[in-house]
Amino acid sequence: MQWFGKGSSNVEDGRGGGGRVAVGGGIGIVVVILGLLFGKDLSGLVGQLPVADQVEVKKGVPAGDEQAQFVSGVLESTEQVWGAEFRELGLNYDQPTLRLFTSSVQSACGGASSAVGPFYCPGDQKVYIDLSFYQELKDRFGAAGDFAQAYVIAHEVGHHVQNLLGISAKVDQARRTMSEVEYNKLSVKLELQADFYAGLWANKAQQLKDFRLDAGDIDEALNAANAIGDDKLQQQAQGEVVPDAFTHGTSAQRMYWFKKGFETGDIKQGDTFNASRL
Ligand SMILES: [Zn+2]
User: Contact, 259 vs 198, CB < 8 A?
Assistant: First the structure.
């Protein structure tokens, strides 16, 4: 894809100088195990982990930093798409902030290491990403390409949309009354809807004047969705890391919902909670 906009003004650069530091294998493993036991929501638990977050946070991204510029551009396009969608719904779209970090970060949802992958925190309405995840996406999951990277951002922004629409709160409330197994099913629906919203973004972004979709872009996103399905991951060694933990749906489901969002571009088609099939 190509983006000719100026980039979002909602990016915070909290990356440290030296790349991967202090928070290494040990804590990463702890987080993964917690993820396996408790499902998607790591927030309260990772809060107990020591987080080295003494970095200076700057507004915006440096000129010449292509990857950060790209992420900023994707975020800007999501602001335009969701701004228009919300206007159509008669609602106001509060733009999320995207925070870049390295190794570990402190969020309103607690501290987190890069090992949990990109995540969204409803408490501060921020998307968190360590850009080294993209290397992992390519090397470990075989999902290369800029549009695979854009899909990751669009999926996390999808969680922000769910937050604004009150969907996340309903799911959180329901969680208190159900078993872990039941909750996992609900979590899958939430995740698949975020994939649908990512697809919807791709559909609407095509109509933006500053946006151009390249041949093969959608395949890159579908390939990424395929690569990070729960079933695929479980075939690999236990303890693999996925974008925002486990219980996200199978590869086929993730591809189906992204595609449905892309093909329909209609938010009403994205009710994964009442869908006759997932
Ligand atoms: Zn997610």
Answer: no
- Cα(12) to centroid(ligand 1), Å: 21
Q: Indicate whether 276 belongs to any domain.
A: no
Rounded to the nearest angstrom, the distance between the alpha carbon of 84 and the centre of ligand 1 is: 23
What's the gap in Å between 257 CA and the centre of ligand 1?
13
CA of 244 to the centre of ligand 1 (A): 5
User: Domain range spanning residue 127?
Assistant: 2-270
**Distances in whole angstroms, Cα of residue 156 to Cα of each of 12, 75, 139, 252:** 16, 10, 21, 19
- Ligand 1 mean position to 87 CA, how many Å? 24
Whether 278 is covered by a domain: the verdict is: no
If one counts the domains in the chain, the total is 1
How do residues 157-199 score in pLDDT, each as one tens digit?
999 999 999 999 999 999 999 988 888 889 999 999 999 999 9
pLDDT digits (tens, 9 = 90+) for 133-148: 999 889 988 999 999 9
Q: How far is the CA of 191 from the centre of ligand 1 (A)?
A: 5
Ligand 1 centroid–CA 4 distance in Å is 27
d(CA 76, CA 105): 23
What distance in angstroms lies between residue 132's CA and the mean position of ligand 1's atoms? 18
Residue 30, in any domain of the structure = yes
- HEC per residue, 101-155: ECCEEEECCEEEEHHHCCEEECCCCEEEECCHHHHHHHHCCCCCCHHHHHHHHHH
What is the value of pTM for the model shown? Answer: 0.85
